[in-house]
Amino acid sequence: MRRHGPHRTATFALFAALLAPAVLSGCTDAGGAAGSSPSPRATSDTEICVNLVSYWAKQVLDDRADSGRDFMQKGLSNGQNNILIAAVAAAEAEKKRHGTAAAHKVIDRQVKRKCAERYRHGKPSEGIWRDPTPSSTSR
Prior knowledge:
Layout: H1 6-25, H2 45-61, H3 78-98, H4 100-118
Helix pairs in contact: 2-3, 2-4, 3-4
């Protein structure tokens, strides 16, 4: 049987000592913690409304080929479609006076404000007109 010299044995021991903590605790990512990753960010109903309605309002304003779809094909609710219609009407007037870029800013402002109002109490089906908690008078 062949014997290894002290240098090779020391190198192996050093390697094992450096590798052992990583093996025992799990490999770490660039962030430093084993198994950690950024948590997914939840998107609020208001943000979804703003993103959808702003996108489609700009498509309609710019008369894009697919902008003629009905609101359900666009993935909008009736209430979101009403926000879109009002935003496009306001933006068309601005576009005539100051151009497309200014009209897009009108859409962004109006849609953000209207979507925030629409979802300020949660989803409209769970909003102020329908209290999801039982009434104290129903006992």
